[in-house]
Amino acid sequence: MRLSLRALSPLLALGSTLIQPAEAQIQIAPGIPLRAIPFPAPVNGFAVFPNSGDTAFPAFFYMAAVGAPGQYEIQAVDTEGNVSPFTSIPGDGLFLHFPRDVARGRLFATEYGIPSRTRDGVYEIASDGSRSTFSYLAGSNPNPWDVVGAGGAFGDVLLVACLDGDSGTSFDDSVYRFRPDGTPLGPLHRDGRAPWNLAVSTGGSYGAYVYCVYYYDSVIDRIDPNGNVTRNFADLGTTGGWIDFGRGGTMGTSLYGANRRGELFRIDPAGNITLVATGLDPSGVFDVDPSSGDLFTTSGNSFYRVTSAVTATCSSRNGSGSNPAVCTCGTLPVLGTAWEIDISATQDTLQTFALLSTLASVPIALPVGELLTSPPHLEIPGNGTHSVPVPTDAGLQGIELFVQGARMRSSNGRLRLELTNAQDCVLGF
Length: 429
Prior knowledge:
It is a single chain. This protein has about 425 residues and is mostly beta strands. About 0% of the residues lie in helices and about 50% in strands. The protein has one helix at about 10-15; strands spanning about 1-5, 25-30, 35-40, 45-50, 60-65, 70-75, 85-90, 95, 105-110, 120-125, 130-140, 145-150, 160, 175-180, 185-190, 195-200, 210-215, 220-225, 230-235, 240-245, 255-260, 265, 275-280, 285-290, 295-300, 300-310, 315, 325-330, 340-345, 350-355, 360-365, 370-375, 375-380, 385-390, 400-410, 415-425. The strands form nine sheets. The protein has a six-stranded mixed β-sheet, covered by helices on one side. Strands 2-23-22-21-20 form a five-stranded antiparallel β-sheet, with no helix packed on it. Strands 3-26-25-24 form a four-stranded antiparallel β-sheet, with no helix packed on it. The protein starts with a strand and ends with a strand. The model is unreliable at about 1-25 (pLDDT under 50).
């Protein structure tokens, strides 16, 4: 098969015919040095990673999925995507939480939204799967949702976002404080707007604040250790947002927020937001792996790891060394740029060609030299320099391309084709 360049850009033609990128329902915003990789675990509930280091929990996902009526099955998913049962817990709604600092290494489950009961629960689950009642939130269905650990100026406390209620108790619609042993300390903040998801910073560029997003709108408020509120610190654009701080590595230590449109934003210390990705599951998983700093999230029926972008590279390869080593990358194949492939010409060279393929080949001896790439090829003619426009499409990063040069030479009135070395290339940033 031989592809014609014609009016199409070489890489677009190649991408439509030869490149078969991995499933990419999550789309990384142009210019953001991240990529989304499918993870083989099935999506059947909300999931969290444990803290790294001082914890008895293996570094697996822990997923709460609906089991029998009124019962949730918590499953552990290892780094290869294998699923095994962990424990079960009663409830009509359940979320899992590994606080980061205070109560680090402990797993909590919030039980919410149970109309037939007069109180919702916060449980602690041990690494052997047993559970105990950490603190029942007395009142009429305050819907405990998120659990985070504070510290520093906040004192050593756990903060629970109590989404809603109908009895007017001190727990309803509040960010409520508990000691690590479960002793209630009263609300840090309460204003009736259904606090839903929390992220805590105890210093650095984000200051000592609890960042709180509300269920019924898209607004993030900033709450200091005394309960003073900076309203409308940032806006995620629609209801039901999720927020979390990066833990180094891929995501850095910025604040991130995801909304019900499946959009992921980076939020700077001044409250400015930058779109990072689209295509997240609006009701799915959003958690950061403390070991790698990668974000794990969902799209459709798949987990995705949002990780560092691939670095664009070129590496020369020349089989037995018999081909002239004159094919080089003038520039790297960086997304959104013109990738230049250079093939040095001799005085009798009439034309040069860059032969692009998605497959390398063991050296195959031909009369014109060793073939180092496998058909089909995209043939790009030129006169020493070959420019390949690389689309700004993060779904292409990590794609491997193999390019081999060829020279058409004329000697004593006879044409002769000559193959050169190859370049093994990776598209990226």
